[in-house]
Specification:
By secondary structure, the chain is of the alpha/beta class. Helix content is 33%, strand content 18%.
Amino acid sequence: MKKIQISPSILSADFSQLGSEIKKLEEGGADLIHVDVMDGHFVPNLTIGPPVIKNLRKYTKLPFDVHLMISPVHKYIENYAEAGADIITIHPEATENLKNSINLIKKFGKKVGVSLNPKTEISALINEIENIDLILVMSVNPGFGGQKFMPEVLDKIKELKMIRDKNHYHYDIEVDGGINFNNSKTVLEAGANILVSGTTIFKENNGNIKNNIEKLKSM
């Protein structure tokens, strides 16, 4: 059984204090730092780019779990690899050739993540599944924080776990979107081992990050 990990999304952090917010996450027991990159094209919002990630790198030794919601993604992989991303997650819909993009991420020595939107079938990545380190199941439609969890993705998580166990693959199953204290146990029981959470970690219990991370891990 894979270790349960928490990857707080800095999308819910105070952007005027990102460095100190990341330090708080590390001190609070986070395993990864989830960085959502949006281009206003692939998804309807804009967030941070490589220079910001590069500047944030000095604030923590935790792995940067960088989710690229940008299209076309292939030509930007090098920029994010050089900026300090440790895991680079892309969408099958955002690249002309998923295999080539996966190979490029590996070329830079980074872990490969592939993300599935709520309506994206597992078949979109199945031909490359043995080359993937992490599969990110979106439990909301990407683009904005604070959305409600979509329970219909639970079957997808279960199927991904079944495929992994049957074939002795080693990819992590990460889930992002509306994760809170009420649904995290169900998500973990379905087969996820990494939870992305923003609002719950930064806002619940008067912003007690350490308490919120510990509570998510113990569900």
